[in-house]
């Protein structure tokens, strides 16, 4: 639900520095949209994500703004907070689920719903090898995979036998 420029529909404002590739903010916008809250985007000259987020929250009728700075910082800010104390911080290089959660949190702030945990979203994107679960050999994985396939085939056969009766 993108809001046109100059439109007075209450919306979350998302401001990004002019050097930021606009395609990189899609996941943030998807998060806002999934929560059913309108958003408004704008390109600004300020390079600071914090400044952009503050400006965005000041200009939003909902008091919620997101800023994406030149260095790739992403900040969610609320008008009622001190300007140097943003609500959430992230990086544009974070996984898309983290960025989507940050956008959703902007919308959830408006709706008065609990926030999504950005740290949990980041944690869920860490590959298994990085979590210390790499002590299973390839042979064991293959054995497990074959056993699961065997069980699924057996279950499927049992279901089809019952349908024919």
From TrEMBL:
Matching InterPro entries: B12-dep_deHydtase_bsu, Dehydtase/Dehydtase_re
Listed name of the protein: Glycerol dehydratase reactivase beta/small subunit family protein
Species per Swiss-Prot/TrEMBL record: Alkalicella caledoniensis
